[in-house]
Amino acid sequence: MGKHTMERKEFRAHELTDDFVRYLRRSEEPGRDVGIFLAEDLLQGRQMRPPFKAKDFQKAEREWKKNPCYSDYKAACESIWNDVKYFPVMISENDPDLAVNYGDSWMSERTYGGTRGHEGTDLMASKNERGLYPIVSMTDGVVTSRGWLPKGGWRIGITSPHGGYFYYAHLDSYADAREGDTVKAGDIIGYMGDSGYGEEGTTGKFPVHLHLGIYLLEGNREISINPYWILRYIENSKLKCVYS
Asked: Where is the LytM N-terminal domain (predicted)?
């Protein structure tokens, strides 16, 4: 266990289960529990089985605490999980048909800019209209990047208090938050669009959607984490607004 563990595809894929996600929604320390769950699965080959009970995690934690790298491993899991509060797309109070859907597309093939793995989850708009769907910060944090990227279009990146980096891409426009500003979980940071895959201002290369990326930061390196199960965890924590 250690930094090399966090770089393994198995850890980055963050493969959980529906039963465990239901347990996490009742957990007071989601990062700790995810860390123990994944450690058991990845390093011992003995995934915990439902029903998940606090005493089961306490027992496993006593064992894992003997590992000198466990505190770093736990901190990595906390940076991903412990600051997440809200689903990133607000839902409409006046039109229930304005929905989003998403699947587990992490590391599926993409070809723009060369063949590569898809480091995120795409939340697709049911209505293909740019500028309609408000995007909120999933966490408290500081805006650490903002502006154009050829692959991501108009994007904004927010670093949360525990150090996770949350990346929102293909925006149509921004709200008021600028680089260096502090945001609160639930603040509107922009609007869903179809920007990217070209020089600054390019739109229309793909349907309107939000690309969500979640990263661990190791020095100057970004380690991508599959956002799918984090989104499932906060599926019921959606803010509402009147779309106009």
From this structure: 5-83
**Omega of the bond leading into 51 within 30 degrees of 0 (cis):** yes
Tell how many helices (H) and how many strands (E) occur in the chain. 7, 14
Torsions phi, psi for 3 (to 5 deg): -60, -35
- Give the count of beta carbons closer than 10 Å to the beta carbon of residue 1: 18
The two three-digit tokens of residue 175, written as one number:
């709200």
Residues 202-229 have pLDDT tens digits of: 999 999 999 999 999 877 788 999 999 9
pTM of the model: 0.94
* Tokens matching residue 43: 């390093």
Neighbours of 173 (CB within 10 A): 12
Beta bridge partners of 212: 121, 168
Domain encompassing residue 227:
91-241
Q: Which tokens is 95 given?
A: 């039109």
